[in-house]
Amino acid sequence: MKQSILLDGPKFQITIQRLCRQLIENHGDFSQAVLIGIQPRGTYLAKRIVHELKAMLGVDVPLGALDITFYRDDFRRKGTGPILANSTHIDFIVEGKSVILIDDVLWTGRTIRSAMDAMQAFGRSEKIELLVLVDRRFSRQIPIQPDYIGIQVDSIDSQKVLVQWKEEDDQDSIHLITEEV
Amino acid sequence: MSSAAEQLSTRHLLGIKDLNENDIQLILDTASNFKEILNRPIKKVPSLRDITIANVFFENSTRTRLSFELAEKRLSADTINFAASSSSVSKGETLIDTVNNILAMKVDMVVMRHPHAGAGVFLSKHVNAQIVNAGDGAHEHPTQALLDSFSIRERYGDVAGRKVAIIGDITHSRVALSNILCLQKQGAEVMVCGPTTLIPKYIKSLGVKVEHDLRKALNWCDVANMLRIQLERQDIAYFPSIREYTMLYGLNKEILESLDHEITIMHPGPINRGVEITSDVADSKHSIILDQVENGVAVRMAALYLLAGKRG
């Protein structure tokens, strides 16, 4: 197994701050926008962004967590069996708001499709945007593109992209993992 | 995320007897996720949209049938309903023939209630579909026990270590047997209480306490599960009169308030108001009877979802 670091240290923090400034550019004081982190690992990024926005704007941006397990299109395929769900917490009104979906890595796009499907259950939002820390470009299986991108990575299917968080894994870093054949 | 295994160990849900502790945790954990979904404006997920489920009821039911049907619809499954009273069963068709005819219409799962113990097990050996037991005679009613445990967990945080008294007609109750097994597998203590004639002779072999004094049982327990007197299953008279039963085993406000601690009251329904439980107790803040009904849909969604995951 070969591991290379794509991003860490101060650059990681700068990337997060840039994403926050891009969000402020489009959503101002966030009076009409809400953030939703996709379970499980999108929620770490979402919490970090809310933390940074609080430092920059002094406001608490509404933050939710969305689990997409029951909306997946691969249920009962690949022999993986059912997948244990994570919890969903959305304790604000989504109707008429701009929803910014947040995930750590965008790969095939299927998770995001499921997430958009799941969001409909909470009402008709004005707009849905997508923010990702890592965009594995050229590997999409459905036509989904992010609105805010931390870094873009060219990778092949057999590789893995792993995002680590200080809160969970003791460091902020993005790794590209290659299984040796 | 819970540490429970991510797959059920069984392909059918025939009884709590066949489930291990992980299966029970997995179903209850998944049910909490479904309960959140049931509070959304749109209470539906697409997971089972390619599954067809037949609800085959050879015995009357209100709650269980509606609850299963709603759970199936919330999971986007297609459903068909079959009630024995209005079917060809009255013309002499056998159980296997009836079910195979239903399966010929491309049905994937069968939810069955039957007056005879073991009907689900029998069917699972002879037809090619997943079977969910919605009550078989006086044997088991697994989803009821699971939703009872879910309700206890919701109230107390954990089932382990709780003291649960099951009170009333134990002999004729499938709810009692499933609950005893389910609660014990999760580490709860169980007591049964009722007149000698309504408590099976060998029930102690299951490791439960037996008590014939209602007040003692209530003072011992955290949760009292009051069962209905099942007159329709009683071929002989097991006690002199309903009035006498009520005087000795009926739960009323006076007894409840005289206990040395607060307890939670459960009832699987349908309630015979004024027999095993009075209206003021059934509708009091101690009662979680309607929570049980609400939780029933979430628990059945979890069971069906996880069983569907066992179909390759």
UniProtKB/TrEMBL annotation, chain A:
PANTHER family: BIFUNCTIONAL PROTEIN PYRR. Residues 3-161 form the Phosphoribosyltransferase domain. GO terms for molecular function: uracil phosphoribosyltransferase activity. It comes from Rhinopithecimicrobium faecis. It comes from the Bacteria. Keywords: Glycosyltransferase, Transferase. This is Bifunctional pyr operon transcriptional regulator/uracil phosphoribosyltransferase PyrR. Pfam families: Pribosyltran (PF00156). Its EC number is 2.4.2.9.
Automatic annotation (TrEMBL), chain B:
SUPFAM superfamilies: Aspartate/ornithine carbamoyltransferase. Belongs to the aspartate/ornithine carbamoyltransferase superfamily. ATCase family. The lineage of its organism: Bacteria, Pseudomonadati, Bacteroidota, Sphingobacteriia, Sphingobacteriales. Pathway: Pyrimidine metabolism; UMP biosynthesis via de novo pathway; (S)-dihydroorotate from bicarbonate: step 2/3. This is Aspartate carbamoyltransferase. Catalyzes the condensation of carbamoyl phosphate and aspartate to form carbamoyl aspartate and inorganic phosphate, the committed step in the de novo pyrimidine nucleotide biosynthesis pathway. InterPro entries: Asp/Orn_carbamoyltranf_P-bd (IPR006132), Asp/Orn_carbamoylTrfase (IPR006130), Asp/Orn_carbamoylTrfase_sf (IPR036901), Asp_carbamoyltransf (IPR002082), Asp_carbamoyltransf_Asp/Orn-bd (IPR006131). It comes from Rhinopithecimicrobium faecis. One of its GO terms (molecular function) is aspartate carbamoyltransferase activity. Keywords: Pyrimidine biosynthesis, Transferase. Carbamoyl phosphate binds at R63, T64, R113, H141, Q144, G269, P270. GO terms for biological process: 'de novo' pyrimidine nucleobase biosynthetic process; 'de novo' UMP biosynthetic process; amino acid metabolic process. Residues 11-154 form the Aspartate/ornithine carbamoyltransferase carbamoyl-P binding domain. Its EC number is 2.1.3.2. PANTHER family: ASPARTATE CARBAMOYLTRANSFERASE (PTHR45753:SF6), ORNITHINE CARBAMOYLTRANSFERASE, MITOCHONDRIAL (PTHR45753). L-aspartate binds at K91, R174, R228. Residues 161-307 form the Aspartate/ornithine carbamoyltransferase Asp/Orn-binding domain. Heterododecamer (2C3:3R2) of six catalytic PyrB chains organized as two trimers (C3), and six regulatory PyrI chains organized as three dimers (R2). The gene is pyrB. It catalyses: carbamoyl phosphate + L-aspartate = N-carbamoyl-L-aspartate + phosphate + H(+). Pfam families: OTCace, OTCace_N.
